[in-house]
Amino acid sequence: MSFSSNVFSIERGGHIATLWLDRPEKRNAMAQEFWTDLPYAMKELGDDPEVRAVVLAGRGKSFCVGLDLSAVSGGGVGGDAQKPASAAEANLKQMGITRAFQAAISSVADCPVPVIAAIHNHCIGGGIDLVTACDIRLASEDAIFGIRETKIGITADVGTLQRLPGIITKGHVAELAYTGRDFNANYAQEIGLVNRVVADQDAVLKAAYELAEEIAANAPLAVRGTKFMLQQGEDLTTEQSLLLNGLWTMIANLGSNDLKEAVSSFMEKRPPTFKGN
Description:
By secondary structure, the chain is α/β, with parallel strands linked by helices. The protein has helices spanning 32-47, 69-73, 87-109, 126-132, 160-163, 170-179, 185-190, 201-216, 220-233, 238-253, 257-267; strands at 8-13, 16-21, 53-58, 115-119, 122-124, 136-140, 144-146, 182-184, 196-198. It folds into 2 domains: 8-216, 2-enoyl-CoA Hydratase, Chain A, domain 1; 220-267. The protein contains 11 helices and 9 strands. The strands form 2 sheets. Strands 1-2-3-4-6-9 form a 6-stranded mixed β-sheet, with helices on both faces. Strand 2, helix 1 and strand 3 (53-58) form a beta-alpha-beta unit. The two termini are 22 Å apart.
């Protein structure tokens, strides 16, 4: 595969891919390359027919400490040295940067296969944006979460305020976003941000891989269809979603070889071997 990055790395094993946040010396802080490279990484994984689930994890001591503030203060994130000719031009340029950042995070949500976040230690600011774009979140006991943007004078603007209310209650979103307060893994599980809390970084990776393997053992087209319907159903009425669900079944399920394999393996009392076609 062609993907290469100084801040991400990809590992493949069977039908599971791991996308590593790979800037451990900076606790995986999000500098310019993070935002430019993430969409390319997700496209490569989403386009790979052998990948049936993705684990998103961070190398080093932290999962992600959020935006690299040193890069921001030095003008290194999203900008260049050319001075805008007017306030209007500057505003439009900033809007373009923000939209690019939003699209980078959305590339995770848009990946056609399930993405599992394996979170350890810090998951702060932009780290919350990132994991709320994942399908499933697991955490180690030492995980620390925080929507800290209000503490540094900005409004979270790349996905947390849009996606988090679909994961936890609006009251919890409001409390955490307004206060910028940090919270631990047990509280994150209590409010539904994470599915499960395990002992440490090794344990959360193990749990994520076990879950990914369980997903990957199922019919790939059916899993992709399930993710597609869960996402589309958020913006549709029940009747519209049911209609779209029926169309997916007609187009992608009933004529698939995986469905035939599921029936054959059941009749022959053996495990199915799905090929995703």
